[in-house]
Write the structure tokens for this entry.
Amino acid sequence: QRRGQFLFHRPTAAESKAGETNDTSVRVRYNDGGYAWVSGQISWEMPVDPAAVIELHRDFRSAEAIQRQLVTPAIVDMLAIRTAPLMSSTESYAARRTEFVEVFADQLRNGPYQTRTIQVREPDPITGEEKTISKVDSVMGPGGPTRIGPSPFQRYGIVLPIATLTGIDYDDE
């Protein structure tokens, strides 16, 4: 196919009651230990450059393999490993919700950020006592975040015109 979309979705309570059991959402863990299941949609366009098409065919052999070996792992990596640890579940729920979506889409399209772990003192959200915690932060360069390499999609010339999150279902804790 020249273009298509990949959906990852957690059934709502109403959908579950109606018999929908196919949960393809991505489980993420934030830097405060909170968990969530993220749903979204990625639209993709295949390259038109013959050399890129041949490389895709040589490396994957089918559209199903591209989705299974390239698209799905990239989405899981960018959400669960690269984006969620950059903030707490509370931050992603409130103050930085749009930033969560923007950081995910940017890393998916342009490559993962280089990160570092820093120690900060802040009040515990439950007890109010100040404590030292580890936070993951992106390394900033002159033009924005420093990247550790290109996106897997850039390597093959795949364009992602739409990369969005449609829902974040937070763990009760």
Q: What stands out?
A: The mean pLDDT is 91.
